[in-house]
Description:
- By secondary structure, the chain is α/β, with parallel strands linked by helices.
- The protein is 45% helix and 24% strand.
- The protein contains five helices and seven strands, in the order βαβαβββαβαβα.
- It has a five-stranded parallel sheet, with helices on both faces. Strands 4-5 form a two-stranded antiparallel ribbon.
- α2 packs parallel to α3.
Amino acid sequence: MNSGVLFVSPHTEDADRLTQILSPLTVRLEHVADLEQARDKLREEPFPVILTDADLPDGAWADVLNLAREVAPSAKVIVTDRFADGRLWVDALSHGVFDILAQPFYATEVRRILTNAYAC
């Protein structure tokens, strides 16, 4: 796997952790802090996978999903959340999110979900 992932999150420590996890896969992680920065980045460069926090300073996962549909329709959107409960899973998956990634990030789970996203 040799591609980029856009990570939309105000948490730089999560971006650092994901960078460590993804380094053996040669996956480049591009981190932006909010929805507006994600919009700018997606207009500059296509990303096949977008990871987004469920809640952002200027929006939420559904806004990122709508942005992806508008700017990068083939991108797989994966939602991350520290409190990924059943309601989030049902809501996000029923609206077309590729998967949910619970936090804290565990290397095997992150790699499994991203490998699946790239395979589809």
